[in-house]
Amino acid sequence: MITPIPVEPAKRNDRPWIILAGVAFLAVLIAWFWFTPAGFWGKLRALGYAVCHQLEERSFCIHGLCSPLCARCTGMYLGAIVSLGYQSCQGRKAKFPPIWVIVVLVLLLGWFGVDGINSFLHFFPNFTGIYEPNNLLRLITGIGVGLGIGTVLYVLFNRTAWSNWVDESPYKKWFIFPLLLALAALLIFLLHTNHPLVIYPVMVISGLGVFLVLSSVYTVVALMILRRENAQLHWRELVLPILMGMTVALLQIFLTSWLRLALTGTWEPLNL
Question: Between vectors from CA 42 to CA 36 and to CA 45, what angle results, nearest 5°?
Fold first, then answer.
């Protein structure tokens, strides 16, 4: 395979568009701050409110505070953040993983689906279920899918953003992916201890992860809309698409929260 040759992009005057995108982001941010519950924890839970049922019995709770996401969603967004951060140590590699890594990720996705369906069916009183669901299984399957989300998103971002992306997989060396699985297993063990020094940071990271993951996805979309695929060498050239991605991500969170609040009339967890 041939690695793309770095090409210095043509000079662009993005300043007016960056200012416009910055103003749009600030406008959405101010509206979201005004709309959502007060306080740091209120804002953090508002991020999760847009994507998760937030049922207390299916979430990590400590000292009267419950995480902004249920155990499964906590694992999913935490796994994505860990995967993205871990792969970033490999530079701008952008080849999809070896087939054996893909097989493992697909199996984890299948486990996520089975456990999710089994857990959902327990909402029905007369359903005995395949097995009794619990938050540990929700966390494990969530992290498994999160690792897959991070893997795909990292490759797509590098392939789309950079003119000098490297035609190698971040998992090219056989031990890289098993080390990521070991790191995920360590996180699961630490979370299962329910220690405040572990739970609180994870609650914050996973909550902010909702915004970060969505922003990354929409940044890739913005690059394609702007027709700037493979046209950047430096991070400063990504200011405009990143601002666009952040704005759309926050707007989605805002509108989804508004719709849920309009339908339920409360910021409390869904009554299922």
Answer: 95
